[in-house]
Amino acid sequence: MVAFTKKENAILSMKTSKAILHTEKLQIGYEAKNPIASDISIAIPAAKLIAIIGVNGAGKSTLLKSIAGIQPALKGSLHIENKRIENLQKNELAELISLVLTQQNQSKNLSVIELISLGRHPYTNWLGVNTRQDKIHIAKAIQQVGIEKLKAKKCNELSDGQLQKVMIARALAQNTPVILMDEPTSHLDMYHKAQVLHLLKNISLNTQKSIVFATHEINLALQLCDEIILINDGKVQQNKPEVLIEKGVLSNLFPKDLIHFDIQSKSFKISNN
Ligand SMILES: Nc1ncnc2c1ncn2[C@@H]1O[C@H](COP(=O)(O)OP(=O)(O)OP(=O)(O)O)[C@@H](O)[C@H]1O
Question: 260 pLDDT band (50/70/90 cuts)?
């Protein structure tokens, strides 16, 4: 068992007391004998944009699914607003965390407004009817993401970038303090990747929600995110981008034959050899 020093314990309790969500020595994976990552102690404060980074197969999606409560943890505990996740009813959890996964093609036959309305599902009555309050949240989400012109369209008529914004609006309509997203910029061009991440940054600032997303866009994440959760070789660390850069952990993330981390520009570059 990993023993924390007094100072580490003090820092951890300071961090977790302010956090909306925190984990204690969480172990994630699909088989007890083969965990993906262990001893995960992360804390998600309000109004932060936080990226989960790591090489392919490191466990980014597994961590997101574990935090969202759809993949049970192997060990340790996860607390949301100081309640243990296993003590929350499904609907209570849906009022605290919204999850946007990459492939949600089953929703593409719906209109934009219908898809966003699904975000209100945890709050609607057994008839599934949206109340005035639901409609206010839906309208606010559409306005925050700036997709008023797309409202009447079918989701299968949208570009990937537009669909991504609609998925963000659905999560906003759910009105949870934490939004989790798996690769929100996949399939987008360079400009639209930056646009979506800027939008997420503004949402976290303006709504006080925390947005945690898995991404391969490490260069953009280092520039835009308040904090980074880095998964490497079964170990997870969370810190501000500049601290991770200073510690040199990014330099050791990938084999150095093709790319390297350039400290000056704080980004990965192609190696010249
Ligand atoms: N449902 C599952 N059952 C068993 N193993 C799984 C399952 N899903 C993923 N894995 C394994 O867990 C490990 C982590 O996968 P995960 O998808 O979390 O990584 P990732 O960092 O999100 O990867 P990528 O960047 O390629 O999307 C991989 O070895 C993967 O094969």
Answer: very high
Break the chain down into helix, strand, coil percent, rounded to 5: 40, 25, 35
Question: Nearest to residue 226, comparing CAs of 205, 212, 240?
Answer: 240
User: How large is the ipTM?
Assistant: 0.99
Q: Which of 30, 86, 95 is nearest to 57 (CA)?
A: 30
| Residue nearest to ligand 1 atom 9, measured at CA | 62
pLDDT computed for residue 1 by the predictor: 42
Six-digit token string for 233: 């070789």
Q: Indicate the helix (H) or strand (E) that contains 23.
A: strand 19-28
> Which one is predicted more confidently, 105 or 179?
179
Q: Whose CA is closest to atom 14 on ligand 1?
A: 59
The ligand 1 atom nearest the CA atom of 54: 21
Q: How far is the CA of 5 from the centre of ligand 1 (A)?
A: 33
State the closest ligand 1 atom to the C-alpha of 214, by its place in the atom list counted from 1: 22
According to DSSP, the β-strands at 259-262 and 267-270 are antiparallel
Neighbours of 30 (CB within 10 A): 11
How deeply is 234 buried, as exposed, middle or buried, from its count of CB atoms within 10 A (0-12, 13-18, 19+)?
middle
Query: For residues 237 and 230, is the Cβ–Cβ distance under 8 A?
Result: yes
Residue 29 Cα: closest atom of ligand 1: 12
Give this prediction's pTM.
0.91
Ligand 1 binding pocket (C-beta < 6 A) is 30, 36, 54, 56-62, 214
CB atoms within 10 A of CB 14: 11
